């Protein structure tokens, strides 16, 4: 296994593919909440994408909107990793790349929304020291301040 990390290199088709493959890893499934084609196009056009590759296969994707130049708070819209690659530190490295980008571009924080029901996801965010800032229905909201 030779994992390679890139930024904004995945094609729209590769983004669609990973969104579809990992849809059921979300609670509720991603495809039940968004139109995958529209969401993938939005990610490709508006987010900064941090990718993990095994050879030429996209295996991990973090997408963050770093476009709020009023508050300099990024919004993490998506994270996914093919299940066979879980537990190898790849998601943590993708998030480190995402946070380092934010720091390099003077962003102060990143926030995100996660399902209360996705225990694995909640453990991951707490492990990365994201702090819960709000709760609404089945959603929890987290923020992490970036060290400049």
């Amino acid at each position: 296994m030779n994992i390679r990390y890139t930024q904004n290199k995945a094609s729209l088709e590769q983004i669609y593919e990973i969104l579809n493959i990992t849809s059921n890893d979300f609670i509720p499934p991603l495809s039940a909440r968004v139109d995958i084609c529209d969401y993938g196009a939005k990610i490709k056009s508006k987010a900064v994408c941090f990718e993990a590759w095994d050879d030429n296969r996209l295996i991990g994707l973090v997408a963050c909107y770093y476009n709020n130049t009023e508050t300099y708070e990024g919004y993490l819209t998506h994270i996914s990793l093919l299940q066979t690659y879980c537990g190898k530190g790849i998601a943590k490295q993708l998030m480190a790349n995402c946070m380092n980008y934010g720091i390099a571009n003077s962003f102060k924080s990143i926030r995100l929304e996660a399902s209360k029901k996705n225990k694995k996801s909640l453990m991951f965010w707490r492990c990365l020291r994201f702090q819960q800032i709000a709760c609404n229905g089945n959603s929890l909201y987290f923020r992490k301040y970036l060290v400049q």
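The CA atoms of residues 4 and 53 lie 5 Å apart. DSSP finds five helices and seven strands in the chain.
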